[in-house]
Structures are given as C-alpha cells and as structure tokens.
Amino acid sequence: MASEPLVDLRDVWKCYRRHHDRPARLKDAFLARFLGHVHQVEQAWAVSDFSMRVEPGEIVGLIGPNGCGKTTVLSIIAGVLRATHGEVRVNGRVCPMLQAGAGFHADLTGLENIYLSGAILGMDRGEIDRSLSHIIAWADAEKWADTPVRTYSSGMLMRLGFSVAAHMRPDVLIVDEILATGDEAFRSKVRHRLREEAQRGRIVLFVSHYMEDIRMLCERVIWMESGSIHLAGPTRPVVEQYIAEGRAPEIRDEG
User: Structural domain boundaries of the chain?
Assistant: First the structure.
C-alpha cells in the first residue's frame, strides 16, 4: 500500500556560499594558490531552524517579505535544492509551480509541453492521454494548444501551467505566487481547484503576498522572516498580526 502524502521538515537549514575575489582564470587561480592568497568565502543562511509538518488534505500558506526564504523552502520540498542541514521527508509525487510556464520548452507547442511535463513528473503516456482533454479544457486552450509556447501571453502560460500541474494528480502541489497577475475569474477558478485537490487528500502549499487569497484558501499559515519561522498558526490571527505590522502590500487594483 502506498504511503499517504506527507511533508515533514525538521530543523532544516540552507546555506549559500558567496565567493569574493575568486580568480577569473585558471592561471590566476594557480598563481594565487602558489603565492598563498586565499579568496574570501561568505556564508549566507537563506533558511535557518525551519520545521513544519503538513498532513494529507491540508492547505498551508507561507507568507513573508521577498527574500525571507519561502521559495527556498518550497524548492527544498520539491527536490530542486538540497538542505544544508536537517531532515526532509516528502511522500508522494511533488508538482512544483514556482512560476508561470516553468519547465515549458519555448519552441514546443502547448500540447507537446503537456506531454513533456507529464513525462518529467513520471507519468506514462496512457496517464497523460487520459488527462489531456481535461487539461486543455480547464486552461481554455483549445484554440492555441497547437501553437509554440513562445507565442503565449503570460496569462496563457499561467493557465496552461497550472492546469498541467493540477491534472497530473500530484500528491503535493506547490503554488508560488501564480495568482499575483491573474484576474479575479482566474483566481477564483484556481482557488476552487486547490480546494478540490485538498478534499481528495492532497497537500497544497500556497505562497502569496495577498492576504485575501491566503484568508480564502488556507487553514493555517507560516509567517517567515529572515529565513526562519516568525509566527505559525491558524490563518485568521496570523494574517491579522501580519497586516497590523504593515507587512501586507496594498490591495491590488482589479481594473
């Protein structure tokens, strides 16, 4: 029997190393080493002492200013990055949507990219065939699925990218700021789909700077600051404090 979807991070840290005065040429590197010159290496901790556990059927929001570590945490969960320290346990198929059209090949058509994305996620041809008509219909892509992705607008990329991710039956769906530029009709459609995924027992990790989306979708929230958890708990009190401290952006203009 397959394991239930699960995301469990314990005491996770992620460090980047910044090299200063590194020789640009191999010759200079040998000379610097011969002369005993050592270039400086600075450690920058993008995530520190981060722990969370997400169970099947949960929709959990991550909030915080740009650069606070949200995307780094999601990238670790997705397997794009490896934690420097700590324990990361993720059960099931993970589908990260970290930006609109991520992973699409610009010279391939939308249809070809659907098959490419499915293969990358480990789906066989039969699984993709069974989902194909639903993916295209959800994205309203019937008229442009056979054209190269490089001709798509950002809105078209966003719709198709999300539709592919949602219909690939992921166990863990990671959604990072894809609602930032969509209109209300699209955002409502996405929120409805994410709720459906959670009702099927899947895990949804959702990042947004807009608190109305967080309030309408998430059951609990993790607020990050400087790579660490600043506050975590039920959505309403966390979001209220976030707004009270002036951390939320202005309400977006729907016009």
Answer: 1-93+170-254, 101-168
pTM for this one?
Answer: 0.82
Closest by CA to 177, choosing from 73, 25, 84, 61, is 61
CA angle 5–119–144, rounded 5-degree value: 110
Give which of 45, 42, 7, 17 is closest to 227, Cα–Cα: 45
Between the alpha carbon of residue 154 and those of residues 101, 105, 192, 253, the distances in Å are 8, 14, 21, 18
Give the three-state DSSP class for 229. Answer: strand
The topology under which CATH files domain 1-93+170-254 is Rossmann fold (3.40.50)
Can you read off the two tokens belonging to residue 199? Answer: 């009702």
Q: What is the DSSP-derived secondary structure letter of residue 222?
A: E
Helix (H) or strand (E) segment spanning residue 118: helix 110-120
Write the pLDDT tens digit of every residue in 130-176: 999 999 999 999 999 999 999 998 888 888 988 888 888 889 999 98
